[in-house]
Amino acid sequence: MAFLFKKIRSYQKKKVNRSWYGTVMIFAVLGLFGSFMALPLVYTINNAFKPLDEIFLFPPRFFVRNPTINNFIDLFNLMANSWVPFSRYIFNTLFITIVGTAGHIVFAAAAAYPLAKHKFPGRNVIFTIVVLSLMFSPHVTAIPNYMTMSFLGWIDSYWAIIVPSFAYPLGLYLMKQFMEQIPDSLLEAARIDGASEYRIFWQLVMPIVKPAWLTLMILLFQQLWGTDGGYFIYSEELKTMNYAMGQIIQGGIARAGAAAAVALMLMSVPIIIFLFSQASIIQTMSSSGMKE
Amino acid sequence: MAPYFTLFFLFTILPVLISVIISFTYFNMLELPRWVGWHNYARLFLEDDVFLIALKNTVLFAAITGPLSYIACFLFAWLINEFSPKIRALLTLIFFAPSISGNIFFIWLIIFSGDTYGYANGFLMKIGIIYEPIQWLHDPKYVLAIVMLVQLWLSLGTSFLAFIAGLQTIDRTLYEAGAIDGIRNRYQELWYITLPSMKPQLMFGAVIQITMSFAVADVSMALAGFPSVQYAAHTIVTHLIDYGSIRFEMGYASAIATILFLIMMSTNLIVQKLLRKVGS
Asked: Which of A55, A73, A260, B91 shows the smallest number of beta carbons within 10 Å?
């Protein structure tokens, strides 16, 4: 408590227009909602290390008493006995995620560069369509997409998931907004030095927009990591880790321990990536605004 | 640039057009589509009671979780912005984590589980408010509210980050100038300086949150089941999934998709108009 008071007081001194009452309220509100946001996550972490008898304790207990890694051992046993080797699911997810994310970054950046830095007729129309398409929900396009995929013969292959993710509009939007901040004089200087547009793009623009890549990376990663193949993938050996995890979770009470371990594993990867790229993401997002 | 837009056209623009066309036909994926005019739309509004329930629930979601999540995104971004960078990064992580941890919302199944092992029941029974476990997810009275709660929990996503970023780019000297010009407290500061300075981010955030609040489906299906008890948590999107991937009435499903699309677009445009007025 004393620590908190000291914190509030030191904070109070620094700024103008700050009342005591307001500062205390901020701590209260953030504390309350922060725990609402964090509780389920903390719970997942705790549950993953609970021995079975603690998972089924009544009344339920929140924190783990005797942590154990049995759940993870259970999980690996389950994995070892699954019909398709578990490593296959991991490979599928990694393949879809890495190819989809990398492809999206290259495609979106290549499209964003002319939109941001070259003047050509129709530029504003194209960008307006991209902004409007931010308002589409994927569900609206699901049925025709299925038909397109079956026409292309991509049903039941990775490409049905990977290729549409290349054209994800939010990524293009953020990339274009970020690229607009690159000063024109820099590009001009490169042109005078005789660099080709191609070279300018790869050697000048791409390194500058690194924060934007990282942002697109986390956005795409989060989408593709969480995919379960949807309507497009039917073969067991092409299904993703998320799908396999879903099956384990549905196994019911007998697998409650393994399910808790699964939950922790699925959750931690995107969070860890975010942890390391947070600063770049915030930097990119500061240019995300829509002009009137 | 060309490759991107080929794909963009193929997977984003073309589907919307196809969807509108199919919505005027009867199409079951096996036979060729047959033109039926406005029949699908007439059937939606005049004959399909479940669609009307879905529509009502979707509007409820959009009207309650939409604005609440938007305000929450801004409020928390604004409060977090008061702290020093290290604490700020930590708080951002805590608030943002639910929205990137994928399908983790299924843990709410355990919290609201209908037996005594559920945390909500366990806690309420321990402190003596209830004596019998409540069937949270199988009682039409609670299920919609619970799905909304979880939806809110998940909603601090892209717009939340955009707001945090927007707040950090505001010129500090504006506040000092404001203090000299007679701004007395946080609230005046918020309305006269902060909000107008980050209008572009506010518009961007609105688009994201509106689109999200109309598209509730996964959470509802995971928590309330599919279909949910008495369709209590049925939304337009779950209705669409029902007709599109279970009954294979593609024409009808496309009509649902088209209506959803029109509702989303018009809400977005109206909200954009309103937001332009902020701070003026």
From this structure: A73
How many domains is chain B partitioned into structurally?
A: 1
Nearest to B1 among A58, A110, A225 (CB): A110
Residue range(s) defining the domain that contains residue B249: 49-275
pTM of the entire predicted model: 0.81
Is residue B158 assigned to a domain? Answer: yes
- The interface residues of chain B toward chain A in range 186-215, judged by CB-CB distance below 8 A, are 186, 189, 198-204, 207-208, 210-211, 214-215
- A181 contact residues in B (CB cutoff 8 A): none
Contacting residues of B for A217, CB less than 8 Å apart: none
pLDDT tens digits, A176-233: 888 888 888 888 888 888 888 888 888 888 888 888 888 888 888 877 777 766 667 7
DSSP annotation string for A236-275: GGG--HHHHHHHHHTT-GGGHHHHHHHHHHHHHHHHHHHH
The CATH number of whichever domain residue B224 belongs to comes to 1.10.3720.10
Closest-CA distance of chain A to residue B126, Å: 8
The answer to whether position B108 is within a domain reads yes
Closest CA to A173 of A267, A104, A122: A104
pLDDT at A190: 86
Dihedral Cα B192, B198, B204, B209, nearest 10 deg: -60
* Distance from C-alpha of A273 to C-alpha of B229, rounded to nearest angstrom: 38
Check if B167 contacts A (Cβ < 8 Å).
no
By the CB < 8 Å criterion, does B1 face chain A?
A: yes
Q: What are the tens digits of pLDDT across the range B53-107?
A: 888 888 888 888 888 999 989 888 888 887 888 888 888 888 888 887 766 777 7
Domain assignment of residue B28, yes or no: no
B278 close contact with A: CB closer than 8 A: no
According to the model, what pLDDT value does residue B199 have? 81
CB contact under 8 A, B15 and A141: yes
Is A144 in Cβ contact with B19 (below 8 Å)? yes
Q: Tens digits of per-residue pLDDT, B161-209? A: 888 888 887 877 888 888 888 777 777 888 888 888 888 888 888 888 8
Distance from CA of B238 to the nearest CA of A (A): 10
**Is position B13 within any domain?**
no
Q: Structural domain boundaries of chain A? A: 2-48, 78-285
Nearest Cβ partner for B103 among A170, A242, A290: A242
Domain topology for A78-285: MetI-like fold (1.10.3720)
Contact A263 B106 (CB under 8 A): yes
Quote the minimal CA–CA distance from A99 to chain B in Å. 15
